[in-house]
Amino acid sequence: MSDYLYDHLADEFAGLIDGRVLRPGDRLPSVRRLASQKRLSVSTVLQALHQLEDRGLVEARPQAGYYVRGRAPAPAEPETQKRLTRPTFVGVTRLLMEVLHANEQPGVLPLGAAYPGAGLLPSLRMQRMFGKVARGREDLLAVGSCVRGNDERLVRQIVRRSLDWGGPLAADEILVTNSCTESLNLCLRAVARPGDTIALESPTYFVLLQIIESLGMKALEIPTHARSGISVEALDLATRNGAVKACLLVPNVNNPLGCIMPEEHKRRVAALLAERGVPLIEDDIYGDLHFDDARPWPIKAYDTSGNVMLCSSFSKTVSPSLRVGFVAAGRHCAEVSMLKTLSSGVTGTMQQAALAEFVAGGGFDRQLRQARRAYARQVARMSDAVAEHFPADCLLSRPQGGFVLWVEMPRQVDALELHRAAVAEGIAFVPGQLFSAAGRYRNCLRLNCGNPWDPRFDAALRRLGELVSRRL
Ligand SMILES: Cc1ncc(COP(=O)(O)O)c(C=O)c1O
After folding, report:
1. For the segment 446-464, what is each residue's pLDDT rounded down to a tens digit?
2. Which atom of ligand 1 lies nearest, measured to the CA of 323?
3. Mutate which of 205, 211, 319, 435 for ligand 1 pocket (most atoms within 8 A of beta carbon)
4. pLDDT tens digits, residue range 248-289?
5. Are 296 and 260 in contact (CB under 8 A)?
6. In angstroms, what is the span from residue 342 Cα to ligand 1's centroid?
7. What is the pLDDT of residue 453?
8. Nearest protein CA to atom 9 of ligand 1, as residue
9. Exposure string for 329-366, b = 16+ CB within 10 A, e = fewer
10. Rounded CA gap, 395 and 387, in Å?
Protein backbone atom coordinates (compact mmCIF):
# COMPACT_ATOMS: atom_id res chain seq x y z
CA MET A 1 0.00 0.00 0.00
CA SER A 2 1.18 3.51 -0.78
CA ASP A 3 1.91 5.94 2.05
CA TYR A 4 0.56 8.95 0.18
CA LEU A 5 -2.91 10.39 0.70
CA TYR A 6 -3.19 11.44 -2.94
CA ASP A 7 -2.53 7.84 -4.04
CA HIS A 8 -5.36 6.64 -1.80
CA LEU A 9 -7.72 9.25 -3.17
CA ALA A 10 -6.75 8.46 -6.78
CA ASP A 11 -7.21 4.72 -6.11
CA GLU A 12 -10.62 5.35 -4.54
CA PHE A 13 -11.82 7.19 -7.66
CA ALA A 14 -10.19 4.68 -10.00
CA GLY A 15 -12.19 1.96 -8.17
CA LEU A 16 -15.43 3.92 -8.60
CA ILE A 17 -14.73 4.39 -12.31
CA ASP A 18 -13.73 0.74 -12.78
CA GLY A 19 -16.86 -0.42 -10.97
CA ARG A 20 -18.89 1.96 -13.18
CA VAL A 21 -20.28 3.81 -10.18
CA LEU A 22 -18.86 6.84 -11.95
CA ARG A 23 -19.46 6.62 -15.71
CA PRO A 24 -18.02 8.35 -18.77
CA GLY A 25 -19.18 11.96 -18.82
CA ASP A 26 -19.89 12.14 -15.06
CA ARG A 27 -18.53 15.22 -13.36
CA LEU A 28 -16.31 14.78 -10.30
CA PRO A 29 -16.95 17.01 -7.27
CA SER A 30 -15.02 20.29 -7.40
CA VAL A 31 -11.50 20.42 -5.96
CA ARG A 32 -12.60 22.55 -3.00
CA ARG A 33 -15.57 20.32 -2.26
CA LEU A 34 -13.41 17.19 -2.37
CA ALA A 35 -10.83 18.83 -0.13
CA SER A 36 -13.44 19.67 2.48
CA GLN A 37 -15.31 16.32 2.17
CA LYS A 38 -12.13 14.30 2.57
CA ARG A 39 -10.38 16.69 4.95
CA LEU A 40 -7.41 16.92 2.63
CA SER A 41 -5.45 19.89 1.35
CA VAL A 42 -6.28 21.34 -2.06
CA SER A 43 -2.85 20.37 -3.34
CA THR A 44 -3.35 16.72 -2.27
CA VAL A 45 -6.66 16.62 -4.14
CA LEU A 46 -5.07 18.22 -7.20
CA GLN A 47 -2.26 15.70 -7.14
CA ALA A 48 -4.79 12.83 -7.03
CA LEU A 49 -6.68 14.35 -9.97
CA HIS A 50 -3.49 14.76 -11.97
CA GLN A 51 -2.72 11.13 -11.32
CA LEU A 52 -6.17 10.10 -12.55
CA GLU A 53 -5.56 12.23 -15.63
CA ASP A 54 -2.21 10.51 -16.22
CA ARG A 55 -3.93 7.15 -15.94
CA GLY A 56 -6.33 8.30 -18.65
CA LEU A 57 -9.37 7.98 -16.36
CA VAL A 58 -10.49 11.60 -16.10
CA GLU A 59 -10.08 14.78 -18.14
CA ALA A 60 -10.01 18.42 -17.12
CA ARG A 61 -12.44 20.64 -19.02
CA PRO A 62 -11.56 24.34 -18.96
CA GLN A 63 -13.72 26.30 -16.47
CA ALA A 64 -15.86 23.21 -15.87
CA GLY A 65 -13.88 20.82 -13.65
CA TYR A 66 -12.96 17.16 -13.97
CA TYR A 67 -15.00 14.59 -15.89
CA VAL A 68 -14.74 10.80 -16.27
CA ARG A 69 -13.26 10.09 -19.68
CA GLY A 70 -15.17 8.13 -22.31
CA ARG A 71 -12.87 5.18 -22.87
CA ALA A 72 -12.71 2.96 -25.87
CA PRO A 73 -13.84 -0.51 -24.78
CA ALA A 74 -10.90 -2.60 -23.55
CA PRO A 75 -9.90 -4.93 -26.36
CA ALA A 76 -9.91 -8.66 -25.73
CA GLU A 77 -6.66 -10.38 -24.83
CA PRO A 78 -4.44 -11.97 -27.47
CA GLU A 79 -4.70 -15.60 -28.40
CA THR A 80 -1.03 -16.73 -28.35
CA GLN A 81 -0.09 -20.24 -29.35
CA LYS A 82 -2.55 -23.01 -28.54
CA ARG A 83 -0.93 -26.22 -29.75
CA LEU A 84 2.30 -27.97 -28.85
CA THR A 85 4.56 -28.33 -31.89
CA ARG A 86 8.03 -29.69 -32.67
CA PRO A 87 11.35 -28.35 -31.35
CA THR A 88 13.03 -26.05 -33.90
CA PHE A 89 16.49 -24.64 -34.45
CA VAL A 90 16.36 -20.89 -34.03
CA GLY A 91 17.24 -18.23 -36.61
CA VAL A 92 16.24 -14.87 -35.19
CA THR A 93 19.58 -13.15 -34.61
CA ARG A 94 20.08 -11.46 -37.98
CA LEU A 95 16.54 -10.08 -38.01
CA LEU A 96 16.85 -9.01 -34.40
CA MET A 97 20.00 -6.98 -35.07
CA GLU A 98 18.32 -5.31 -38.05
CA VAL A 99 15.32 -4.32 -35.90
CA LEU A 100 17.42 -3.13 -32.95
CA HIS A 101 19.60 -0.96 -35.19
CA ALA A 102 16.58 0.53 -36.97
CA ASN A 103 14.89 1.31 -33.64
CA GLU A 104 17.91 3.22 -32.38
CA GLN A 105 18.37 5.56 -35.32
CA PRO A 106 18.43 9.22 -34.24
CA GLY A 107 14.97 10.75 -33.99
CA VAL A 108 13.07 7.47 -33.70
CA LEU A 109 10.57 7.46 -30.79
CA PRO A 110 11.56 4.98 -28.03
CA LEU A 111 8.68 2.52 -28.34
CA GLY A 112 10.93 -0.40 -29.34
CA ALA A 113 13.52 -1.77 -26.89
CA ALA A 114 12.25 -2.36 -23.32
CA TYR A 115 14.24 0.35 -21.58
CA PRO A 116 13.02 2.04 -18.41
CA GLY A 117 12.41 5.79 -18.61
CA ALA A 118 15.54 7.70 -17.56
CA GLY A 119 13.55 9.76 -15.01
CA LEU A 120 12.47 6.61 -13.18
CA LEU A 121 16.02 5.43 -12.51
CA PRO A 122 18.15 6.55 -9.54
CA SER A 123 21.02 7.54 -11.84
CA LEU A 124 22.30 10.56 -9.91
CA ARG A 125 22.27 8.70 -6.62
CA MET A 126 24.12 5.79 -8.20
CA GLN A 127 26.74 8.13 -9.64
CA ARG A 128 27.24 9.57 -6.17
CA MET A 129 27.75 6.03 -4.86
CA PHE A 130 30.52 5.54 -7.40
CA GLY A 131 32.20 8.67 -6.04
CA LYS A 132 31.79 7.49 -2.48
CA VAL A 133 33.26 4.03 -3.00
CA ALA A 134 36.04 5.43 -5.19
CA ARG A 135 37.11 7.78 -2.39
CA GLY A 136 36.62 5.35 0.48
CA ARG A 137 38.07 2.13 -0.96
CA GLU A 138 41.31 2.86 -2.73
CA ASP A 139 42.13 -0.82 -3.28
CA LEU A 140 38.97 -1.51 -5.29
CA LEU A 141 40.56 -1.57 -8.73
CA ALA A 142 43.83 -3.16 -7.61
CA VAL A 143 42.55 -6.42 -6.13
CA GLY A 144 42.17 -9.47 -8.33
CA SER A 145 40.77 -12.95 -7.93
CA CYS A 146 39.91 -15.72 -10.36
CA VAL A 147 37.27 -17.35 -8.21
CA ARG A 148 36.11 -15.01 -5.43
CA GLY A 149 34.44 -12.25 -7.41
CA ASN A 150 31.34 -11.56 -5.33
CA ASP A 151 31.07 -8.34 -3.32
CA GLU A 152 29.92 -9.87 -0.04
CA ARG A 153 27.95 -6.78 0.87
CA LEU A 154 26.00 -6.94 -2.37
CA VAL A 155 25.30 -10.64 -1.86
CA ARG A 156 23.94 -9.87 1.61
CA GLN A 157 21.55 -7.34 0.07
CA ILE A 158 20.41 -9.85 -2.56
CA VAL A 159 19.73 -12.39 0.21
CA ARG A 160 17.95 -9.78 2.30
CA ARG A 161 15.72 -8.75 -0.59
CA SER A 162 14.78 -12.38 -1.24
CA LEU A 163 12.94 -12.34 2.12
CA ASP A 164 10.22 -10.38 0.29
CA TRP A 165 9.32 -13.40 -1.81
CA GLY A 166 9.68 -16.50 0.31
CA GLY A 167 13.50 -16.56 0.48
CA PRO A 168 16.12 -16.45 1.88
CA LEU A 169 18.40 -17.47 -0.94
CA ALA A 170 21.54 -19.18 0.29
CA ALA A 171 24.50 -16.79 0.01
CA ASP A 172 26.79 -19.57 -1.21
CA GLU A 173 24.66 -20.36 -4.27
CA ILE A 174 24.82 -16.76 -5.54
CA LEU A 175 27.17 -15.57 -8.22
CA VAL A 176 27.27 -11.90 -9.20
CA THR A 177 27.38 -11.58 -12.99
CA ASN A 178 27.65 -8.90 -15.66
CA SER A 179 23.90 -8.94 -16.40
CA CYS A 180 20.83 -11.11 -16.48
CA THR A 181 21.81 -12.02 -20.04
CA GLU A 182 25.15 -13.35 -18.81
CA SER A 183 23.42 -15.33 -16.04
CA LEU A 184 21.06 -16.95 -18.57
CA ASN A 185 23.93 -17.82 -20.92
CA LEU A 186 25.96 -19.42 -18.14
CA CYS A 187 23.02 -21.46 -16.82
CA LEU A 188 22.09 -22.79 -20.22
CA ARG A 189 25.67 -23.81 -20.94
CA ALA A 190 25.87 -25.47 -17.54
CA VAL A 191 22.92 -27.80 -18.07
CA ALA A 192 22.53 -28.38 -21.82
CA ARG A 193 24.62 -29.17 -24.91
CA PRO A 194 24.37 -28.28 -28.63
CA GLY A 195 21.42 -30.10 -30.21
CA ASP A 196 19.48 -30.31 -26.91
CA THR A 197 15.88 -29.15 -26.70
CA ILE A 198 14.95 -26.27 -24.38
CA ALA A 199 11.32 -25.58 -23.46
CA LEU A 200 10.17 -21.95 -23.39
CA GLU A 201 7.00 -19.89 -23.17
CA SER A 202 5.46 -18.82 -26.46
CA PRO A 203 5.78 -15.93 -27.14
CA THR A 204 9.07 -15.39 -25.32
CA TYR A 205 11.74 -12.71 -24.92
CA PHE A 206 13.79 -12.73 -28.13
CA VAL A 207 17.19 -12.75 -26.44
CA LEU A 208 16.36 -16.15 -24.90
CA LEU A 209 15.87 -17.45 -28.45
CA GLN A 210 19.06 -15.75 -29.54
CA ILE A 211 21.04 -17.46 -26.76
CA ILE A 212 19.59 -20.84 -27.71
CA GLU A 213 20.49 -20.11 -31.33
CA SER A 214 24.07 -19.16 -30.49
CA LEU A 215 24.55 -22.37 -28.51
CA GLY A 216 23.19 -24.57 -31.34
CA MET A 217 20.25 -25.78 -29.23
CA LYS A 218 16.60 -26.22 -30.21
CA ALA A 219 13.59 -24.33 -28.89
CA LEU A 220 10.33 -26.01 -27.97
CA GLU A 221 7.59 -23.40 -27.66
CA ILE A 222 5.00 -24.24 -25.02
CA PRO A 223 1.49 -22.73 -25.27
CA THR A 224 1.25 -19.73 -22.96
CA HIS A 225 -1.88 -17.89 -21.91
CA ALA A 226 -1.84 -14.09 -22.06
CA ARG A 227 -3.07 -13.86 -18.44
CA SER A 228 -1.90 -16.98 -16.59
CA GLY A 229 1.34 -17.76 -18.37
CA ILE A 230 2.69 -21.10 -19.53
CA SER A 231 0.26 -24.02 -19.73
CA VAL A 232 1.30 -26.45 -16.98
CA GLU A 233 -0.55 -29.28 -18.77
CA ALA A 234 1.38 -28.68 -22.00
CA LEU A 235 4.67 -28.49 -20.08
CA ASP A 236 3.79 -31.75 -18.35
CA LEU A 237 3.15 -33.38 -21.73
CA ALA A 238 6.33 -31.98 -23.28
CA THR A 239 8.62 -33.19 -20.49
CA ARG A 240 7.29 -36.75 -20.25
CA ASN A 241 9.69 -38.53 -22.61
CA GLY A 242 12.99 -37.02 -21.45
CA ALA A 243 13.62 -35.05 -24.66
CA VAL A 244 13.52 -31.64 -22.96
CA LYS A 245 16.90 -30.97 -21.33
CA ALA A 246 16.06 -27.68 -19.61
CA CYS A 247 13.33 -25.10 -19.24
CA LEU A 248 13.86 -21.35 -19.63
CA LEU A 249 10.93 -19.34 -18.24
CA VAL A 250 9.94 -15.78 -17.32
CA PRO A 251 7.08 -16.57 -14.88
CA ASN A 252 6.87 -13.12 -13.25
CA VAL A 253 5.85 -10.51 -15.81
CA ASN A 254 6.55 -12.42 -18.98
CA ASN A 255 8.12 -10.42 -21.77
CA PRO A 256 6.17 -9.66 -24.03
CA LEU A 257 2.80 -10.62 -22.45
CA GLY A 258 3.25 -9.00 -19.00
CA CYS A 259 1.48 -11.91 -17.26
CA ILE A 260 2.34 -13.41 -13.88
CA MET A 261 1.80 -17.14 -13.39
CA PRO A 262 -0.64 -17.97 -10.57
CA GLU A 263 1.24 -19.15 -7.45
CA GLU A 264 -0.37 -22.59 -7.63
CA HIS A 265 0.93 -23.09 -11.17
CA LYS A 266 4.42 -22.13 -10.01
CA ARG A 267 4.27 -24.71 -7.25
CA ARG A 268 3.21 -27.38 -9.77
CA VAL A 269 5.94 -26.46 -12.25
CA ALA A 270 8.60 -26.59 -9.50
CA ALA A 271 7.44 -30.08 -8.43
CA LEU A 272 7.01 -31.41 -11.97
CA LEU A 273 10.45 -30.36 -13.21
CA ALA A 274 12.21 -31.49 -10.03
CA GLU A 275 10.58 -34.90 -10.26
CA ARG A 276 11.68 -35.30 -13.89
CA GLY A 277 15.17 -33.90 -13.34
CA VAL A 278 14.66 -31.06 -15.85
CA PRO A 279 16.58 -27.99 -14.62
CA LEU A 280 14.64 -24.74 -14.64
CA ILE A 281 16.38 -21.49 -15.56
CA GLU A 282 14.10 -18.78 -14.22
CA ASP A 283 14.38 -15.17 -15.40
CA ASP A 284 12.97 -12.91 -12.66
CA ILE A 285 14.21 -9.58 -13.96
CA TYR A 286 10.75 -7.95 -13.73
CA GLY A 287 9.76 -9.53 -10.39
CA ASP A 288 10.09 -6.22 -8.51
CA LEU A 289 7.99 -4.33 -11.08
CA HIS A 290 4.59 -5.90 -10.29
CA PHE A 291 1.48 -3.65 -10.29
CA ASP A 292 -0.37 -5.38 -7.43
CA ASP A 293 0.70 -4.75 -3.85
CA ALA A 294 2.40 -8.05 -3.10
CA ARG A 295 5.71 -9.08 -4.63
CA PRO A 296 5.02 -12.23 -6.70
CA TRP A 297 7.15 -15.21 -5.68
CA PRO A 298 9.48 -16.77 -8.21
CA ILE A 299 9.28 -20.52 -8.85
CA LYS A 300 12.60 -20.66 -6.97
CA ALA A 301 10.59 -20.08 -3.76
CA TYR A 302 8.93 -23.50 -4.25
CA ASP A 303 12.17 -25.31 -5.08
CA THR A 304 13.31 -27.81 -2.47
CA SER A 305 16.03 -29.64 -4.43
CA GLY A 306 18.24 -26.91 -5.92
CA ASN A 307 16.73 -27.55 -9.38
CA VAL A 308 15.89 -23.90 -10.10
CA MET A 309 18.52 -21.41 -11.23
CA LEU A 310 17.20 -17.93 -10.54
CA CYS A 311 18.58 -15.21 -12.84
CA SER A 312 18.06 -11.49 -12.48
CA SER A 313 19.75 -8.10 -12.67
CA PHE A 314 19.37 -4.45 -11.75
CA SER A 315 19.02 -3.38 -15.40
CA LYS A 316 15.30 -2.56 -15.17
CA THR A 317 15.33 -1.01 -11.72
CA VAL A 318 18.69 0.75 -11.21
CA SER A 319 20.45 1.13 -14.56
CA PRO A 320 20.46 -0.71 -17.89
CA SER A 321 24.10 0.26 -18.42
CA LEU A 322 25.44 -0.67 -14.98
CA ARG A 323 25.65 -4.32 -16.13
CA VAL A 324 25.29 -6.07 -12.79
CA GLY A 325 23.13 -9.16 -12.40
CA PHE A 326 23.24 -12.38 -10.47
CA VAL A 327 22.29 -16.02 -10.49
CA ALA A 328 21.29 -18.22 -7.57
CA ALA A 329 22.22 -21.47 -9.24
CA GLY A 330 21.13 -24.09 -6.71
CA ARG A 331 22.81 -27.43 -7.24
CA HIS A 332 24.40 -26.25 -10.51
CA CYS A 333 26.40 -23.58 -8.75
CA ALA A 334 29.87 -25.14 -9.18
CA GLU A 335 29.40 -25.63 -12.93
CA VAL A 336 28.04 -22.11 -13.43
CA SER A 337 30.87 -20.68 -11.38
CA MET A 338 33.47 -22.47 -13.49
CA LEU A 339 31.89 -21.21 -16.72
CA LYS A 340 31.83 -17.67 -15.35
CA THR A 341 35.54 -17.81 -14.53
CA LEU A 342 36.31 -19.07 -18.02
CA SER A 343 34.05 -16.66 -19.92
CA SER A 344 34.37 -13.29 -18.20
CA GLY A 345 36.35 -13.75 -14.98
CA VAL A 346 34.74 -11.85 -12.17
CA THR A 347 32.24 -8.96 -12.26
CA GLY A 348 33.58 -5.39 -11.97
CA THR A 349 34.40 -4.57 -8.35
CA MET A 350 33.56 -0.89 -8.68
CA GLN A 351 30.05 -1.53 -10.04
CA GLN A 352 29.36 -4.12 -7.37
CA ALA A 353 30.56 -1.93 -4.53
CA ALA A 354 28.58 1.12 -5.73
CA LEU A 355 25.43 -0.97 -6.11
CA ALA A 356 25.86 -2.55 -2.67
CA GLU A 357 26.21 0.93 -1.19
CA PHE A 358 23.06 2.11 -2.93
CA VAL A 359 20.88 -0.90 -2.03
CA ALA A 360 22.13 -1.05 1.57
CA GLY A 361 21.62 2.69 2.03
CA GLY A 362 17.82 2.53 1.82
CA GLY A 363 15.57 4.41 -0.55
CA PHE A 364 15.57 1.60 -3.11
CA ASP A 365 12.12 0.36 -2.04
CA ARG A 366 10.67 3.83 -2.23
CA GLN A 367 12.13 4.29 -5.68
CA LEU A 368 10.68 0.93 -6.75
CA ARG A 369 7.23 1.95 -5.47
CA GLN A 370 7.35 5.12 -7.54
CA ALA A 371 8.54 3.24 -10.61
CA ARG A 372 5.77 0.63 -10.27
CA ARG A 373 3.09 3.30 -10.05
CA ALA A 374 4.54 5.18 -13.00
CA TYR A 375 4.74 2.04 -15.18
CA ALA A 376 1.16 1.07 -14.32
CA ARG A 377 0.06 4.56 -15.44
CA GLN A 378 2.16 4.50 -18.57
CA VAL A 379 0.93 1.06 -19.61
CA ALA A 380 -2.70 2.15 -19.03
CA ARG A 381 -2.17 5.30 -21.07
CA MET A 382 -0.56 3.40 -23.94
CA SER A 383 -3.37 0.80 -23.86
CA ASP A 384 -5.95 3.58 -24.14
CA ALA A 385 -4.15 5.10 -27.10
CA VAL A 386 -3.93 1.74 -28.89
CA ALA A 387 -7.63 1.09 -28.18
CA GLU A 388 -8.46 4.51 -29.60
CA HIS A 389 -6.28 4.50 -32.70
CA PHE A 390 -5.93 0.89 -33.85
CA PRO A 391 -8.64 -1.02 -35.74
CA ALA A 392 -11.30 -2.39 -33.40
CA ASP A 393 -10.43 -6.05 -33.96
CA CYS A 394 -6.90 -5.71 -32.54
CA LEU A 395 -6.30 -7.60 -29.27
CA LEU A 396 -4.29 -6.20 -26.40
CA SER A 397 -2.43 -7.70 -23.42
CA ARG A 398 -3.28 -6.56 -19.87
CA PRO A 399 0.12 -6.50 -18.21
CA GLN A 400 0.36 -7.26 -14.50
CA GLY A 401 3.71 -5.52 -14.24
CA GLY A 402 6.69 -4.26 -16.21
CA PHE A 403 6.38 -1.83 -19.07
CA VAL A 404 5.64 -3.57 -22.36
CA LEU A 405 2.39 -4.02 -24.21
CA TRP A 406 1.58 -6.76 -26.74
CA VAL A 407 -0.81 -6.13 -29.61
CA GLU A 408 -2.29 -8.77 -31.87
CA MET A 409 -3.43 -7.31 -35.19
CA PRO A 410 -5.62 -8.93 -37.85
CA ARG A 411 -3.92 -11.77 -39.77
CA GLN A 412 -3.37 -9.74 -42.96
CA VAL A 413 -0.87 -7.44 -41.23
CA ASP A 414 2.79 -8.43 -41.44
CA ALA A 415 4.47 -6.78 -38.44
CA LEU A 416 7.91 -6.86 -40.05
CA GLU A 417 6.75 -5.06 -43.16
CA LEU A 418 4.80 -2.64 -40.93
CA HIS A 419 7.97 -2.06 -38.89
CA ARG A 420 9.94 -0.99 -41.96
CA ALA A 421 7.23 1.49 -42.91
CA ALA A 422 6.91 2.79 -39.33
CA VAL A 423 10.64 3.27 -38.75
CA ALA A 424 10.81 5.32 -41.95
CA GLU A 425 8.37 7.67 -40.19
CA GLY A 426 10.31 7.69 -36.91
CA ILE A 427 8.19 5.14 -35.00
CA ALA A 428 9.80 2.08 -33.39
CA PHE A 429 8.34 -1.16 -32.02
CA VAL A 430 9.41 -4.81 -31.98
CA PRO A 431 7.70 -7.05 -34.55
CA GLY A 432 6.08 -10.23 -33.21
CA GLN A 433 8.14 -12.60 -35.39
CA LEU A 434 11.12 -12.08 -33.07
CA PHE A 435 9.33 -13.64 -30.10
CA SER A 436 9.09 -17.07 -31.69
CA ALA A 437 11.59 -19.56 -33.08
CA ALA A 438 9.03 -20.80 -35.58
CA GLY A 439 8.06 -17.44 -37.09
CA ARG A 440 4.75 -17.22 -35.21
CA TYR A 441 3.20 -13.89 -34.22
CA ARG A 442 3.85 -12.27 -37.60
CA ASN A 443 0.73 -10.16 -37.01
CA CYS A 444 1.75 -9.03 -33.49
CA LEU A 445 3.91 -6.26 -32.12
CA ARG A 446 5.38 -5.16 -28.78
CA LEU A 447 5.41 -1.56 -27.57
CA ASN A 448 7.70 -0.17 -24.88
CA CYS A 449 5.86 1.93 -22.27
CA GLY A 450 8.95 2.67 -20.17
CA ASN A 451 8.80 6.43 -20.78
CA PRO A 452 6.41 9.02 -19.33
CA TRP A 453 3.50 9.81 -21.60
CA ASP A 454 4.37 12.25 -24.33
CA PRO A 455 1.92 13.78 -26.86
CA ARG A 456 4.27 12.56 -29.58
CA PHE A 457 3.38 8.99 -28.57
CA ASP A 458 -0.28 9.73 -29.21
CA ALA A 459 0.51 11.05 -32.68
CA ALA A 460 2.78 8.05 -33.35
CA LEU A 461 0.11 5.55 -32.31
CA ARG A 462 -2.50 7.33 -34.38
CA ARG A 463 -0.19 7.07 -37.39
CA LEU A 464 0.65 3.43 -36.61
CA GLY A 465 -3.08 2.70 -36.39
CA GLU A 466 -3.53 4.25 -39.85
CA LEU A 467 -0.68 2.17 -41.25
CA VAL A 468 -2.32 -0.96 -39.81
CA SER A 469 -5.76 -0.03 -41.21
CA ARG A 470 -4.26 0.50 -44.66
CA ARG A 471 -3.03 -3.07 -44.69
CA LEU A 472 -6.46 -4.59 -44.05
C1 LIG B 1 12.97 -10.97 -19.71
C2 LIG B 1 14.29 -10.26 -19.81
N3 LIG B 1 15.41 -10.86 -19.37
C4 LIG B 1 16.61 -10.27 -19.45
C5 LIG B 1 16.76 -9.02 -20.01
C6 LIG B 1 18.13 -8.42 -20.15
O7 LIG B 1 18.66 -8.09 -18.93
P8 LIG B 1 20.14 -7.52 -18.78
O9 LIG B 1 20.13 -6.16 -19.40
O10 LIG B 1 20.43 -7.50 -17.34
O11 LIG B 1 21.02 -8.45 -19.52
C12 LIG B 1 15.62 -8.36 -20.48
C13 LIG B 1 15.73 -7.02 -21.10
O14 LIG B 1 14.87 -6.56 -21.82
C15 LIG B 1 14.36 -8.99 -20.38
O16 LIG B 1 13.25 -8.41 -20.85
Report:
1. 999 999 999 999 999 999 9
2. 10
3. 205
4. 999 999 999 999 999 999 999 999 999 999 999 999 999 999
5. yes
6. 22
7. 92
8. 315
9. bbebbeebbebbeeeeebbbbebbbbbbbbbeeeebee
10. 9
